[in-house]
Amino acid sequence: MSEGESSGASVWHQGRLLLGVSPGEPFNACERVVDRHCARYPEATAAIHRNHHGDRRVFTFEDLRRAVSRFASALDALGVKPGDRVFTLLEPMPELFWSILGAIRTGAIAGPLFAAFGSEAIRDRLGDSGARVLITHGRHLLKVRAAIEGLPGLKQVLVVDPPADGLRGIERDLAALLADASDERPPHPTSEQDPMLLHYSSGTTGKPKGVLHVHEALVGHAATARAVLDLRREDSYWCTADPGWVTGTSYALFGPWALGVPQIHYEGGFSSSAWYSLIEAERVSVWYTSPTALRMLMRDGVEAARAHDLSSLRHICSVGEPLNPEVIRWGLETYGHTIRDTWWQTETGCMQIANAPWLPVRPGSMGKPLPGVTAAVLDPTTHEPLPPGQEGLLALVPPWPSMFRTYWNRLDLYGARFRNGFYLTGDRAYTDADGYYWFVGRDDDVINTSGHLVGPFEIESALLTHPAVVEAAAFPIPVADAGEAVAARVVLAAGSESSRELIRDLKTLVRRQVGPYAVPREVVVVDRLPRTRSGKIMRRVARAEHLGLPVGDLSSLDES
Ligand code: WT7
Hints:
The protein is α/β, with parallel strands linked by helices. Among the domains are: 28-43 and 61-214, ANL, N-terminal domain (Rossmann fold); 445-547, 2-Layer Sandwich (GMP Synthetase, Chain A, domain 3), CATH 3.30.300. It has a 9-stranded mixed sheet. Strands 1, 18, 19, 21, 22 and 23 form a 6-stranded antiparallel sheet that branches. The chain has a 5-stranded parallel sheet with strand order 5-4-6-7-8, with helices on both faces. A hairpin with a 2-residue loop joins β21 (418-419) and β22 (422-431). The longest helix is centred in the first third of the chain and has 17 residues, at 61-77. It is globular. Residues 556-560 have low confidence and may be disordered. The structure holds 5'-O-[(S)-butoxy(hydroxy)phosphoryl]adenosine. 5'-O-[(S)-butoxy(hydroxy)phosphoryl]adenosine is lined by residues 201, 246-247, 319-322, 341-346, 366, 425-427, 439, 442, 448, 453.
C-alpha cells in the first residue's frame, strides 16, 4: 500500500483552504465557483468562448453570475425543486455551462449528456435518473423526440435555437423563459453533502450507471486543479474535454473556476491547425487533453506545430487512456514540455494518481498517488495489498471529498465496488520499487475508445435491434497507433446473409442509438459465439478468436 508523496499536507486540506470552507461547513458549489469571485473581482475574465466559425465571446465572473442566476430562476418558474434532475444535451456552448451551474444553484442535480449521444443512450439516462427537465439545442430535437417518447418523469424540454417549424408538446423556447427570469437569484443553501451532479458511466453488464457526486466534490476539483494542473489566476487555461464526460465538468468547469482561473471553451471539432491556432491566439499556458488528441497531433507532424507560436505553453497534462512513452518523447521535442499523465475516473471525481509537477516523470507511468490519497494493488482473490512488481487490482482507500456517493438507484452495485476496506477501481496495475503506478488494463470488459468508456452491452443491445442479428459480442481491439477501438462479432438469423449493406446498417444502428464514438471499426459475421455452460457469451474468447490469438484455458474463463 502506498501513501501519497509526503511533499506536504493532504491535497484535500489544501482544497478546503483554496475554497475557503472548513470540514463540514455547508456550501453551494455554484456559489463557490461564481459568486465568491464577484465579491473580489467581478470584472475578471471567467470564460472565453470560441467556436469553429471563429467567433470569440468573453464572459466575466459577473456575467457568469447573472447568467447562472437567470438559468436558476427560469428553473424555479418551471417548478424545479432541490434534488430534481436537470439534464443537458448541448455542445460546449455558453448555455451548457450556465445550465449546469444554474441547476446546481437551485439545489437540483445536473446531468450533462454528451451531445453526440444516440437516442437510446439519451433515453437510458433520462429514464434511469427520472430527469425532470432536459435542456437541448434545436438541432437535436429529432433524436430527442425519439428518445423521450413515453418517459413519464420528463416535464419540460427547453430548447436553445428552436427550429423554424416550431416546438411541440413539452418543448419550450429557452430564450423566452430566460427573458422573464431574474438575474439576482441567490444560491440555494445546500449542505456540502447534498447531491449536485450525475454522470453516467458504462460497465460490463447492463446499461450505464449514474455516478452521483455531492457539492463537497468541489474540494477535490479545486485541490487537484492547483496541485496537479498548477493553475493560477494569471494562466490561460484550456481543457479540451466536453462536459458530457467527467473531465469536462471537473476540469473544464468546477476546478478552474473554483480557483477563479479563466478558461477557454472551444465549441468545434478536432483539427491540428484549429487547435494550434487557438493555443497561439489565446496564449494558452496550461493545457489538459487526452492521449487520443495528442496522438492525432503527433500524426500531423512536428511541422504543423512549428507553424504556430506555442511558446505560451508551460504545463501539459493528459488523462483518459494510457499515455504512450513515445507521445511523451514527441511532446518534449515538439512543445518543449514533458506531458504529465493523470489517472482518475468518473467515480473518483478528480485526479488520484498523477505525475504532479514535483514528480520526475517515468514515461508510461501514471505517476504516484497524490498526498492524501492511499492507493494499493490488490491480490484479485484475497484483496490484500501486493508488493511492488506484482500485477493486481488497482484500489483506493476511501473516503475522499469527490468520491461518488452511490450509483443512482443501484446501491447494490455501489456496495460491490468495496472490498476489504478498499474501493476497487476496475483497473489492473502494478507499482515499481519507487512507488510509481503503471497501468495494465481494465479488469472488466469495458472498452476504452478515445478515452471514452463504452459498455459492450450497449453496443450489443444496439446490434440486436437489427432483425437479422440473433447474437452479438462487442470487445476492444488494439489499433495501430495505440489505443483501443470497438469490434463486434454477430450471429445472423437463419435465412439472413452477410452483405456490405448489412454491415453498414449495423454500424449505423450503433451510431444512432449509442453514439458515433461507439461505432465498431470491424463487424464480422460468424456462425457461433463462444458461450459458457450457463449460456453467457464469453467476450474475451470472441475477442481472441477475432484477433487470431490463442484462446487460452477456457475452463478458467467459464462463468467469468
Ligand atoms: C477509466 C475511467 C477520468 C477521466 C476520464 C475517464 C481509464 C483514465 C487513465 C490513465 C490509463 C486511464 C481507466 C479508468 N483511464 N485515466 N491516465 N491511464 N487509463 O473517466 O470514463 O470514468 O474512465 O479510464 O481505465 O478506470 P471514465
